[in-house]
Design a protein that fits this description.
Rossmann fold, five-stranded parallel β-sheet, 5 helices, about 40% helix, about 15% strand
Amino acid sequence: MEPGGTQDGGGAEGDGATILIVEDNALNLKLFSDLLRAHGYAVEGLADGREALDRARALRPDLIVTDIQLPHISGLELIERIKADPDLAAVPIMAVTAYAGRSDEERVRAAGAEAYVSKPISVVRFVAEVRGLLALAQGSANPPVRRE
């Protein structure tokens, strides 16, 4: 299993939500995973974006957090594939990237990501974006499946 693999959250704040993280940098994957677990979320991490679509179909996460600069498949292409899949289209996506330009954010959002956070991340903003996206998903007509 990759660093940051599946583990239950354990805290009440995460409300049982499952988050799939796609990040090829092992340190960032660990940081994101540990941070989200500390807030009560169940997390599964992947270092290879080529596995992300199949894993998302099997896991049915409540949120996907993905890097944009991935080897083998770009994060933009991954986002587009997820949003084109009828079973995953409603799952919110947060893009995390070292890109910081306005046009970069526009491209990320045009691909289908609901949120954009630049690296290095602000821990407060990262967690606030996660909470906001999960709240949005809970209020949608077709919210993602919750895991107990």
